[in-house]
Specification:
There is one protein chain. The chain has 158 residues and is of the alpha/beta class. The protein has helices at residues 14-26, 52-57, 93-97, 120-125, 146-154; strands spanning 4-8, 29-32, 77-83, 105-111, 133-134, 138-139. It contains 5 helices and 6 strands.
């Protein structure tokens, strides 16, 4: 049986809710991807071009500092969760670039008010070792039931 980590970034708590459901369903450990400086409501104002999230999302090379570096030793599979911002993952590449994902399987999952995964997979893949295995990501409701999450994870052949 492989050891599973559910790593997630959640600025508002929605993705955290889904990550906790997922970890409970699969028996995985939780790791919160936290920025060194927490986001404020003003930082998340996507209508303000000068807000922190807008500036980061408009800067493809932006890499917000993390509060903690993950330790992936012993994990075979890492679910990586995040909200969709501007039709893609927020700048969580800092997390992906800070740890060795060699030989691991990464499975993205996202929450969103309505938009899909967009080009998220292509953007995230380039931040990991070439031998990282990727499963197709999925957008789920932050309120997805354990049954819904279980049905998805069973389709992954973990």
């Amino acid at each position: 049986m492989s050891k599973i980590l559910v790593a997630y970034f959640s600025a508002s708590g929605e993705t955290a809710r889904l990550a906790k459901t997922l970890a409970g369903v699969i028996g995985g450990d939780l790791f919160e991807i936290r920025p060194q400086t927490a986001y404020t409501a003003a930082d998340l104002d996507w209508n303000n071009a000068k807000s922190r999230s807008s500036v980061e999302m408009n800067g493809p090379k932006s890499r917000p500092a993390m509060a903690e570096t993950p330790r992936l030793a012993g994990y075979d599979t890492v679910f990586v969760g995040f909200p969709i911002w501007w039709y893609q993952a927020p700048r969580i590449q800092t997390f992906l670039e800070s740890a060795d994902f060699s030989g691991k399987t990464v499975i993205p999952f996202a929450t969103s008010g309505g938009s899909g995964m967009g080009k998220t997979m292509e953007l995230l893949r380039s931040s990991c070792a070439p031998d990282t295995r990727w499963n197709e990501g999925k957008r789920l409701s932050s309120h997805a039931s354990a049954q819904e999450v279980s049905a998805w994870t069973k389709s992954l052949s973990l």
